[in-house]
Amino acid sequence: MIDAVAPAPRPEPLVLRGGRIHDPAHGRDGAAGEVWMEGGRIVAPPADPSRFRVVDATGLLVMPGAVDLHSHVAGPKVCAGRRIARPAGAGGRVAVPTIRATGLAYAALGYTTVFDAAIATGAAGLARLELADLPILDAGFYLLAADERPVIEAAARGDAAGLERLLGAAVRDGGAWTVKVANPGGALFWRHARRGDHHDLDTPLPGLALTPRTFLARLGAAVEALGLPHPLHVHTANLGLPGNWRTLDETMRVFDGRRAHLAHVQFHSYTGGDLDEGSFGSGVEALADRFNAQPGLSLDVGQVLFGDTVVMTGDTEAAAHLARVTGVPWVSHDQHLAGGCGVMPIRYRETSLVHAWQWAIGLEWYLRVADPWRAALSTDHPNGAHFLAYPLLMKLLGDEPFRREAFARLHPAVRRASPLGEIRREYSLQELCILTRAAPARIAGLPHKGHLGPGADADVVLYRPHRDLERLFALPARVYKGGVLVAEDGEIRARPRGAALAAPRADA
User: Which value, to the nearest 10 degrees, does the dihedral of the CA atoms of residues 489, 375, 70, 419 take?
Assistant: First the structure.
């Protein structure tokens, strides 16, 4: 990838002509057409087209720029990840790239927007500074404001107005997009040295008449009352533990009739009480039935793909448990702030019982979600895999014979017991466009992203059709950001500054 030297040019009026347009928000499903761009926006066909330069897109697939709803690209936890390990995955890629390398690689892949999913309140200023160095992409973050003691105490008192005031001020002052809760109340359990006490949603928080169940409900109501663009972003309790499917089921019940976004559900969908062959398994079928019946919920999966990567989570208790189980050295940092993050290297292996189950459970989630408009493609980068592996994930979803071949290489106990082997669903190109663009933009609350209608950002990606979906999505022919050509066949052509995405002020 070649870094650009010259500053980004101003966008000129362009019309992409002859491409096969995939724009699910407007019902365009691969028919040839035109996309008009001017001033960084998509515009309606003009009465006088003479000033528009024609770009021949004949035979190419045309989609909106992709949106990553849940990633980890900035802040102290990511810096710790860069220090603790730099394992190389397939193709020699660095598991936790620098902020500049992150932006260039995302852009070359066809992504134009990203959200960091876990920034501690005290680190918000540092995250904003780092994201200002992220080239090309528009970027925002979710704030771990639910770890703050005053927030927890307001929720414990049932002080709805106070809770809204505290959360609103934290989001506004931090320049965040919405509120993230990671293991509700987990920071208090951690501070009180109850690190092996894996609590359910009805275990009172130490010293308070408040359960995680009630805390979740009050947080969700406060975020909804504040009118934030994206609903409460929920990482529920007991991440990664056998039997935790019950916790996720109970979490969904908390939000029955309300909006919430469920983060990396793959890590919360395990049956059993241990990690042995006869116990550990998938709880996805029942969970997906409940999810499909609750239209206010959305989710990302946190797909595991095999290879080396780095775990980083705002759920320090979960990271500590994983370190005890694996014996792998880890880092716990930010304990001087309200919350903390656990960071450690990991290698996912096809022959591992647990890793094979995680791979299969993630895919099962995607294939059981009835409405792709309520789901966003993710690997919880870098926790499940690097974002550069997204094309492989799209191939696994859209090519059932390829998925079956990969399934045949898994640990034999998983092959025998996983329901994935019986699922024949394949995602179409249109559904993959929804999963990577239209749905995450809508879920995030970005009306100017994820579609190609007038008024949308002129973030447009052109792909060469290929029966190999991984090859198709790995190397876009052209990527436009705000109407500027930023990448072509993997080469960076320009580096315009992306926008900082922060929730609009209620008094604006």
Answer: -90
